[in-house]
Amino acid sequence: MTTDKKSWRDGHRERLREKFLTAKLVDYELMELLLGYAIPRRDVRPVARQLLQTFGGIYQVLMAPIDELIKIDGMGQSAATYIKIMHDLMRRGYQGALKQQPVFYETDQLMDYCRLLVGGKTIEEFHILYLDKTFRLLADDLHSSGTVDWAAVYPKEILKRVLDLGARVVIMLHNHPTPNMSFSNDDIELTRTLQAMLHTIDVELYDHLLVSGNLVYSAKNMFLLLNSNKPRSDVSAMVASMDD
């Protein structure tokens, strides 16, 4: 590599950093700046453009599986890992915020956390978020992983975990790998079954959130939750119909 090419590259990246500090970067420039730290000795502008074109945007790039990232020409294992590190930093940042303040304080933070947690997954994952009485996050458990259109849920295990943690509020979370697919009838039935079971031990089901594509569906906002005054006598039939 000639000195002229090296000087041009270094100067270009310095200009990108200056634009970043003034919030003037467009998406491909931001991706280029990020890749420059992982791939320091190459022109990464074509790689940045190809990533955005292939996956559809910065969010989709961050969510892409590492084995898909490395298929892009110019992306190696180190660069793909660097992108996934950035993704995990964002996820942990939102998780930390949810532990420090009630989840309803800034709803957008909760939604963004859910997107970062399960968005872009190629199989269904079911997570349970356990909250204390002040609606702060105690734990986020991966309850189960399944197939492209199904994941098992074991309500009695959730109740046991609630008691172990001393949780007072629960949020259900899962994903649909197919974009823009809302709650299925099975999802709704499961939501109401778990809500009724939690009600027997005075624990609130705050919401069931579903990530599909870039969308986060809320069972609460869609009026899919049971009335909180549902008689507890109705729960026994639900419990009896469930596997241990």
Which helices and strands occur, and which strands form pairs?
Layout (H helix, E strand, L loop, with lengths): L2 H19 L5 H12 L6 H11 L2 H6 L2 H4 L7 H24 L6 H12 L6 E7 L5 E9 L9 H11 L3 E7 L9 H15 L4 E9 L2 E4 L16 H6 L4
Parallel strand pairs: 3-4
Antiparallel strand pairs: 1-2, 1-3, 4-5
Textual characterization of the structure:
It is a single chain. With 244 residues, the protein is an alpha+beta fold. It folds into two domains: 86 residues, DNA polymerase, domain 1; 120 residues, Cytidine Deaminase, domain 2, CATH 3.40.140. The chain has ten helices and five strands; from the N terminus they run H-H-H-H-H-H-H-E-E-H-E-H-E-E-H. The protein has a five-stranded mixed beta sheet with strand order 2-1-3-4-5, sandwiched between helices. Helix 1 packs across helix 2 and helix 2 crosses helix 3. The longest helix is centred in the middle third of the chain and has 24 residues. The C terminus is likely disordered.
Tell me the radius of gyration: 22 Å
- Say which CATH homologous superfamily of the largest domain is assigned: Cytidine Deaminase, domain 2
Instruction: Give the helix tally.
Output: 10
Average of the residue pLDDT scores: 88
CATH architecture of the largest domain: 3-Layer(aba) Sandwich
Report strand order across the widest sheet.
2-1-3-4-5
**Share of residues in helices:** 40-55%
Poorly predicted tracts of residues? 229-244
CATH fold group of the largest domain:
Cytidine Deaminase, domain 2
The domain tally reads 2
How far apart the termini lie comes to 66 Å
C-alpha geometry: elongated
